[in-house]
C-alpha cells in the first residue's frame, strides 16, 4: 500500500481553507486535490493489490463524511472516484487494471449512464457520445463511461486526454465538483479497455449511494460547526432582551433538534455501511436500507434549515460558510441515489412482492 503521510486532520484543514475558492471557481482547488491524494482519499476503492486501501463501506463512508465536513465538493469527487474505481476493478481485465491503477492515488471519474455507443472497428472500438454530470472530470486522469456496443451494456476506460470537457455544470450547490459533460467524438479505444457490464445490484447501488450520502452528512456536520460558533460568540437574537443566543430556550431547542438530525443521519449512514460490510442481507432488507439512505439525506436537509433559521438572514451572506453548506446539502441530497420518492417506490414494490401468490 502507498505510504500516505498526510493526516486526515491536516487534509481537512487544507480543504476548509480552500472550500470557498472551490465554490467560486467551480473546481476543487489544486491544494485540496493534492492533500486528498496524499492522504489516500482517492485510493479508497483502489484494490490493495494495486497499492490502495480496498476500503469497506464503513471506512469509506466515515472518510467521505470527514472530508465533506471541510469541503463537500472535494468529498463528492472523492466519492465518485471510489465508484469509478470500483467498477473498473469489477469489470475490466487484469491487463487494463494494471495501467488504470498504476497510480493508486490518481483521481478518476466516470458515468454509469449508457449515453454513448461503440462501433467495433479495426484496432478497437470507435466511441461516440456525451455524458453529463461527470464530477471532477477536469482534473481526472481516466474516465469510465457506460455505452452500448452491439446492443450490450459496456464500460469503456478512456484517458481524459482523448475526451473533450464541455463546461455545462452551472448549479447552485456542489459547484466545486466541476460536474461537466464529457464528449467522445469517434475516439478509438483499444478493445481490451471495453468490457461488458451489468446494472448494479441493489447492494452495489447502496454502496454507491454511500459515496453520495457521506459528503452530504459531512456537509451537515460542517454546517453544525458554523452554528456552534454562533452560540459560542456574543451574537444575540435580534430584537430581544437576550444577551447571547444560548439564553433563548427556543434557540437551544432548535440547536438540539438540528444536532439530533445530523447525529441520526450519521448513525443511519454507518448502520447501512455496516450492513453492507456484513453482506448478509436479503434483497428486501437491502431495499429497506435504500429508504433509510434517502431518509438520512432528508434529515441533513432539515437540520441545515433549522440552522439557517437560527442565523436569520445573515446566514445567507455570501461570506458566511453556512449558506455554502446549505446549497451543497440541498443539491447533493437530491442525487438519484438518495431521492426519497424513488426509494419509497422501490421499498413499496418489495413489500408488495412478498404477498404475490399468497392470496
UniProtKB/TrEMBL annotation:
GO terms for molecular function: acyl-CoA dehydrogenase activity; flavin adenine dinucleotide binding. The keyword Oxidoreductase applies. Residues 13-79 form the Acyl-CoA dehydrogenase/oxidase N-terminal domain. It comes from the Bacteria. The keyword Transcription regulation does not apply. Keywords: Oxidoreductase. InterPro entries: Acyl-CoA_DH_C, Acyl-CoA_Oxase/DH_mid-dom_sf, AcylCo_DH-like_C, AcylCoA_DH/ox_N, AcylCoA_DH/ox_N_sf, AcylCoA_DH/oxidase_NM_dom_sf. Residues 214-338 form the Acyl-CoA dehydrogenase C-terminal domain. This is Acyl-CoA dehydrogenase. It comes from Nonomuraea longispora.
